[in-house]
Design brief:
The protein is mostly helical. The protein contains 12 helices and 7 strands. It has helices at residues 23-30, 42-54, 76-83, 97-110, 117-123, 127-148, 166-182, 185-190, 196-208, 212-217, 224-230, 233-246, and strands at residues 58-62, 85-89, 114-116, 159-160, 163-164, 257-259, 266-268. It has a 3-stranded antiparallel β-sheet. α1 (23-30) runs antiparallel to α2 and α2 crosses α4 (97-110).
Length: 271
């Protein structure tokens, strides 16, 4: 529910997300972004993939046991881990338009329903694949905006003309309290997730704020999604998708602007 935590409560409510916004919207609105950069970026696509793994729409098979951390530029160690992480599209049941686009984007990018992260990284270097990814990502971006009635300037009664309303400021503050809970050993021990479902949901929320690895260290690794995070899968997805955007050729670029997940570069296009 919106505005659930009026203060930083010293009770179990602190573990409840303060609003019912989707993961991409939480990341776009409440992560510390510049005021002029509230755009749906590729981290939102990565978060959607995490959610699809959590919902068993994408199966994740991992053939390495040790936890892993990615450090910047992809190296041989990263590629070895990526070779041992396989995603398989299951795609059963009803999906939102943005989820369907995300799944089709992955299938088209890899020309298969089953692929390793290493395969996907190699594909992201192809200009042809990158150009198609770029178009599909733009469709994904539009779908997320339409589903949530979101623009970079306006969202519900939270954001109007590019500025947080009083209600928006309060909810943003509540999300900060929730972040404090996600990364607090004391609070997590006192108010732990009560199920594997809640555990995984908290990990995805943590990914919205780039806190996923630290949050997982305080929680059980008890699902495919958690094991994917344990191998730094969220960061690897962001790197792969960023790499695809960086390989789009000039001819495929339009008049808009897409932002990579870390704002390391901008790519004109999509208009």
């Amino acid at each position: 529910m919106l505005g659930m935590n009026k203060k930083n409560p010293e009770n179990e409510n602190i573990k409840n997300p303060p609003s019912d916004d989707s993961y991409p919207i939480v990341a776009t609105l409440f992560k510390n972004k510049r005021l002029n950069n509230r755009e749906i970026d590729i981290s939102c696509l990565s978060l959607t993939v995490l959610d699809l793994i959590n919902e068993n729409q994408i199966k994740c098979e991992i053939n390495c046991n040790d936890s892993y951390n990615v450090n910047g530029k992809i190296n041989e160690g990263d590629l070895e881990v990526m070779k041992n992480i396989t995603l398989r599209i299951a795609n059963k049941g009803d999906l939102k338009t943005s989820e369907t686009i995300a799944i089709n984007l992955l299938k088209k990018m890899n020309n298969s329903k089953k692929f390793t992260l290493k395969d996907m990284y190699k594909q992201s270097k192809s200009t042809t694949v990158a150009n198609n990814f770029y178009k599909d990502f733009y469709s994904f971006k539009q779908a997320v905006e339409n589903e949530n009635e979101f623009t970079s300037k306006d969202y519900r009664d939270i954001l109007i003309n590019g500025k947080f309303t009083d209600k928006g400021k309060e909810i943003k503050k509540e999300w900060k309290y929730f972040q404090d809970y996600l990364k607090s050993e004391e609070l997590t021990e006192k108010y732990p997730p009560e199920s594997a479902v809640e555990n995984s949901s908290q990990i995805i929320y943590a990914a919205c704020f780039n806190l996923e690895k630290g949050a997982l260290e305080l929680r059980e690794n008890n699902s495919e999604l958690c094991d994917f995070i344990d191998k730094d899968g969220y960061k690897l997805l962001n790197i792969i998708f960023d790499n695809a955007l960086s390989n789009v050729n000039e001819k495929s670029k339009g008049t808009g602007i897409f932002y990579g997940v870390n704002d390391k570069y901008t790519i004109p296009g999509g208009g």
